Amino acid sequence: MAKTFGINLDDEKDEIANIIRIGIDDLNPERILKNCIHLFVKLGSCGLPAKWLKLPTAGFKYLHCVKTNNTIYGLSLDGLYKIFSENYCKNCKYKLKHPPEWKWTYKWQQEQHEKYADSVPTI
């Protein structure tokens, strides 16, 4: 679909292609969220390419701890989690991984969104 809009996902120098690749990677945030039951991801704003492709994860995301109320935002969940875990999770007494059998689903995400979206400070 990206190619129909003239986006070459193989071009590592193309900033739009980079954002779209991040959005594709971040469609499933399980790799981040599995690390703690208190983590929540809220989608933020996205640009036209993300809207054209109906890929809202190709935009800003907020990584939020519902227990400690810490929040950061950025484009890549991997980059966000690296910073977030170093600053907040590393020594957190509330850190609790999901059970090994837990899987992220859109339904689970929607339930979390209904519970916590309004508590995430947006920038």
Number of contiguous helices? 5
N→C terminal distance:
31 Å
Radius of gyration, in angstroms, nearest whole number: 15 Å
What amount of the residues lies in strands? 15-25%
Instruction: Describe the global form.
Output: elongated
Order of helices and strands: HHEHEEHH
- If strands are numbered along the chain, what order do they take across the biggest sheet? 1-2-3
Tell me the structural class: alpha+beta
Give the tags.
single chain, 123 residues, alpha+beta, 3-stranded antiparallel beta sheet, 5 helices, 3 strands, 36% helix, 15% strand, elongated
Give the helix/strand layout.
Elements: H1 15-25, H2 30-33, E1 39-46, H3 48-52, E2 59-65, E3 71-74, H4 77-89, H5 106-116
Antiparallel strand pairs: 1-2, 2-3
Could you explain the architecture of this structure?
This protein has 123 residues and is α+β, with helices and mostly antiparallel strands. Helices cover 36% and strands 15% of the residues. The protein has 5 helices and 3 strands. The protein has helices at 15-25, 30-33, 48-52, 77-89, 106-116, and strands spanning 39-46, 59-65, 71-74. Strands 1-2-3 form a 3-stranded antiparallel beta sheet. Strand 2 (59-65) and strand 3 (71-74) form a beta hairpin. The N and C termini lie far apart (31 Å).
